[in-house]
Design goal:
Layout: H1 13-20, H2 34-38, H3 41-51, H4 55-72, H5 78-89, H6 96-103, H7 107-117, H8 122-140, H9 145-151, H10 157-168, H11 172-177
Length: 196
């Protein structure tokens, strides 16, 4: 039996933009190889990782590679960095129109820069962040769905229900009944774990 190992890297959207140096909207919904992402330099990294027996040295090589790529790559537009930070700070409740007005730019400009540097439109990013806030809220303490919707910036409960159906594939109540106590995971997804 042949042994293998893998390394899972999670980059922030703006970190990925700097490291990859390509519009992130071009990568949405795709699986790309290391070579597709980094070109010929990826082969050298793989060779170094194969030749290194020590995991600490492998992690150092990867860190050096990523730092070099990030330093040589494009810098996020300050407007995008600020707007993304503002969306995180407000749990996705800040309106895109307001962000653009505060930055002194158009919604179209902000939308285009977000698609390029984050991979998604700012409204979509806000929606995902807000949905994450709902998830954290329902794990903290029980409340009515109308209260959760209001606290998390939804216009009403029906909008919260719509996001649950579209983003989680289920209703809010069904989602909560499938939460694993103390783990924050969801049971009964029907999605096999990759390593199974």
């Amino acid at each position: 039996m042949r042994r293998y190992a893998s390394i899972d890297l999670e980059l922030t959207p703006l970190g990925a933009w700097s490291v990859l140096g390509v519009p992130l909207s071009e990568l949405g919904g795709q699986t790309v190889t290391l070579e597709d992402a980094f070109g010929a330099v990826a082969h050298r990294l793989v060779d170094v990782l194969h030749a290194t027996a020590d995991w600490d040295a492998r992690f150092d090589a990867i860190e050096d590679f990523l730092l070099e790529r990030a330093q040589a790559g494009p810098r996020p537009t300050p407007a995008v960095a600020w707007a993304l930070s503002r969306l995180w700070d407000t749990d996705g409740r800040e309106r895109v129109e307001k962000l653009a007005a505060q930055l002194g730019c158009s919604r179209r400009y902000l939308h285009a820069r977000f698609r390029e540097q984050v991979g998604l439109a700012p409204k979509t990013v806000a929606r995902l962040i807000r949905f994450g806030a709902v998830r954290r809220r329902i794990e903290r303490a029980p409340a009515t769905w109308a209260d959760v919707a209001h606290e998390c910036g939804y216009a009403d409960q029906s909008h919260l229900n719509r996001d649950f159906r579209e983003l989680a594939g289920t209703t809010p109540t069904d989602f909560v009944t499938r939460l694993l106590p103390g783990y924050g995971g969801v049971m009964g997804d029907g999605v096999p774990f990759v390593q199974d």
